[in-house]
Structures are given as structure tokens and as C-alpha cells.
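task queued by scheduler; priority normal; single chain, no ligands, no partner chains; default sampling; output format set to C-alpha cells
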Amino acid sequence: METPWIAEPQLKVALQRNAAFWRNELEEYPLLWISAPGVKPGEDIPEPATDEELWTNVDYAIAAGENFLSRTHYAGDSLPFYNPWVGPDQFAGWLGAPLTLRPREYTSWATPFVERWSDYPEWLIDSTNRWWRLYGDLLKESVRAGRGKWITTFPDLHTGIDALSALRGPEGLLVDLLAEPDIVLQTMRRMTALWKEVVDFVWDILKDSGQGTTNWTGGWSEERFVCIGQNDFTCMIGPEMFETFCLPDTVECINHVDQTMYHLDGPAALRHLPQILAIERLHTVQWVHGNGQPPHSHWLDMLKQIQEAGKSVQIWYNLHYTSHVVDIMKEVETVCAVLDPTRLFIGADVTDPAQADAVVRHAQAVCRARRPTQVPR
């Protein structure tokens, strides 16, 4: 992986530590993806005529992405990456759902159109689908323009049960789980197959980029690193339904790639944590506490439970995930003092380079002050 925006000595260490994280050989302190966006000089890219074009104008989207990355200060183990997408419901869009884009809010949503699953016996991604073609163009252009500069991500894939929810609507799907479980299971198996097809398609493009892989969660690998468990719908169902309808998809997707992180989103998802932790090849659980919830230092017992099950933990501090104002230095000190720092991944977006570098130094100092016997292995 190469980039002009990180000094060679720092980049070399960052790549070594990112690779060590997946081998469970990280030393001393957590994997630290700390960055300060927008702090380096540069000129803004003129915006296109419409909000939709912020995502659909490929030339603008890539130029704006490069502008953002080039003006970011990267501290610790962080690396520049670009995520080609048209919002979290893009997968449903690839399957034919009408999409509403809200780029300034960094989201999109699909309009459900399935009345009966039996009307759609075989789901396919049409190569002429507008959103699929746009995604492919963004992906390929990011790989081309990012060679020697940034990592192009695997896609943000809300497949599986979230795809069914987007296609059918959550209320309808909840009824279907009870009224037509067999056809839902059949459709879920098709979602799993499509997930694999998309990942393989993307990997064929990424593997020769020379930049390695990542996804929207951050982290880096030379192999296939994908975020699993974009399962917001699972907050509406219990563990029994999760085991029946979601767990087989999750396990199969994890087994299909090399490194994985499960996106555990909000307190309502915690009911499924025991089943998730029992998945042998899952490496890391990303905990997102959700808006209105206290910061990560208030969830230490649960985070320790994840580590005690042999998994690593990722936590992020930025405005996208919380409405609380947090003292990042105090947070880092608290979590590093309690959790195993060698099985911990901390990400944060801060306001200036000095703060980013200070967070890294503080985490290192806290961890180095701990006695080795205090770190559970």
C-alpha cells in the first residue's frame, strides 16, 4: 500500500500493525485509526448542479473523495480509503428497488415493492441496472485514481435480512417470518449467494490494485476484509428467529472471506451477541452504541465479554455515531485501562492534527504503564 499523504516510516509501522491485528499479534497498545479531516490546505471542488450528482457524477465523486483524503491528517495506524457507494440501501437498488438519495445526510433509502415473495422466485442483479452500473463505474474509477494514493473499500452491503426488509418493508417481513418462513429462508439463501457474487466481483477488481483492502469500518488487510452483519432488522426479532433466518447467512459470509468484522448496532442487537460470539472464524466485533446512548466507557462489561470470547473489539468516536460530547482522552484512558489493548481497535475523527497525535501518544502511554500481568490473554 502506498500513499503520498503519510510519511514512509509512519506508513511502514501502520501497515505492520494493521496486519498484526488480524494475526492476533498486535503489541503494547490498540490499533489506532485517529484522523483529523479537513485540516490541510486545499481548494474545495466545485459542486455539480444537483444534490443527487454528489454521488452519481463519477468524476465529481472521485475528485471530491481525493480532495477530502488529501486534506486529512492521519495519525497512528490510520490510512486513507475511499468508499464507492450510493447509500446503505444500494444493494436493494441493485435488485430493482427505487432509491432516494440524500448525499448531504450521507444516506439513502429504498422504496419497498415486493407484495409476495412467490412473485420473485429468482433474484438477480441485472447488469443494466442503473445503480449497479454506477457502483461499478465508481469502483473502477476509484481503483484507477487511487493507485498509489488510497485504498478502495469493499462495499457497504446491507444484504441478507436487511435486504429483504428493504425490498418488502419491515412490517411485511415481520409477518412473513411467521406466515411464510420457508419462502423467506429460500430468499435468504439467495441473498447469501448474491453477497458472495458481489464480493467476488469486487475482489476481482481490487486484488490487482496494490493497495490492499478495507471497508467503511476502517482497518487494512492484504486479503479480503469485509464488514459482516449489516443487520439492523435483527433488532426487531429474538434470538430464535435470528438463529433460523440470519445466523446461517452470517456464518456463510464470514467463511467466504479472509478477515471479518461484525457490525453490532445498538442495545437492541445485544440479544444476539452470544450467537455471534460463537462463530469461530469471526475476528472482530464493531460496537456502535447508537444515538442517545452513553459512550463506550459505559459498555465495558459487554466489551470485555467480547474479548473473553476470543474476539477483538472495534469502537469509534465521531459525530456520526453519537449525540454525546465525549472527552476522547478520558475515554481512551478508561477503555485502555480495562480492556486488552492488543485485541482493541480504536477509531476517532478529531478536529486538529495536534489532538490526533496527542490521542495516539496518550493511548500508548496508558498501555505502556500497565503491567503485563494485568493484560488478559
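post-processing summary
- The radius of gyration is 20 Å.
- The chain is about 40% helix and 15% strand.
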